Amino acid sequence: MRLKPSVVLRLYSLCGILIQVAATKSKAKGSQGQFPLTQNVTVIEGETATLTCRVDQNDNTSLQWSNPAQQTLYFDDKKALRDNRIELLRASWHELTIRVTDVSLSDEGQYTCSLFTMPVKTSKAFLTVLGVPETPQISGFSSPVMEGERMELTCKTSGSKPAADIRWFKNDKEVKDVQYLKEEDANRKTFTVSSTMNFKADRSDDGVVIRCRVDHESLNTTPQIAMQVLEVHYIPSVNIIPSTSWPEEGQSITLICESKGKPLPDPVLWTKDGGELPDPERMFVNGRELNINFLNKTDNGTYRCEAENSIGQNSAEYVLIIHVTTTVALTSTVPSATAINTRDPNALAGQTTTGPDHAVIGGIVAVVVFVTLCSIILLGRYLARHKGTYLTNEAKGAEDAPDADTAIINAEGSQVNAEEKKEYFI
Prior knowledge:
40% strand; alpha+beta
């Protein structure tokens, strides 16, 4: 039996419809088994956020992005919300990516990507917006500050989200003993933080750089810093340094007056024993130095250096002791002469001109020593010549002599021409 052509065409059309229905059901089952994929995003306030929604398998089912208020932003490639900050980057059956520029804190929240299958499948992406802290400010600073005065410095910054961290530094050394305070701003999203540092000003703090550093994750690796340089005023400190530690008579000496203070001290004032310098011809001041030429015992005494600035006055003292060098030549019968050179340790500061002359005393002592040595030498020579010389008892007529001298006398008186025997005992 032959079929009519019209019947055959109808059979082909029916088969095509059945095939399309089967394919559609198969695709629907594949898309219904998969959820869209999204990812949370963190962005700094004022920067750009990118939201991406992906589907691996899709049968041309539509994708949609909605904001936290459930307002549609994009449906496929069609923009639904009039906001010039929101732009479409990519739209296909497998991906829908949008971009939000100049992000504000109000943009923070949960965004939804929807896949319009039966039923609709969704995925959430949370947009976190970081609030950037404002540039910190240091308050409570005064310049200059007096030594010993207590300072209270406060560093404050607002607008951070989450709350920022504040750290204090003196030069490069961190100060740990500080107070920290955190307060919520009126928008209930950001925070104002402050930190207070207390310390007593010391002269060592003069010129120190005080830094308040704000650390926050929105600042990446570049923290915000506020700086102040301390200026501390203090009374002078004075010290006298001599050019030599053993000043000797006839030499010169320079006394250097070191004075440090803030403000810089006025020219220093030199005095001796509470009065003016007694010999301007040998003693002259050059800046902070006192020079004394041709030292002698009258220069012994206490020298004072005074320094003064607008804060106060200070001084230092130095006791000068002149050491006298005495050279005495001793002569004797010995061919070579001996010279004795001694340092007189008894030269004291503050001696008057009525005191004994140490050179004369040294000469007298040397003469006494010389005379004593000569006397000992002469006595020794005398004893060496006369001690123990006598005639032995073998001399005639001296058998009964009580001692050697008597024997010699007897022998000389009785036997002038007799042969004598003498023994010498030295």
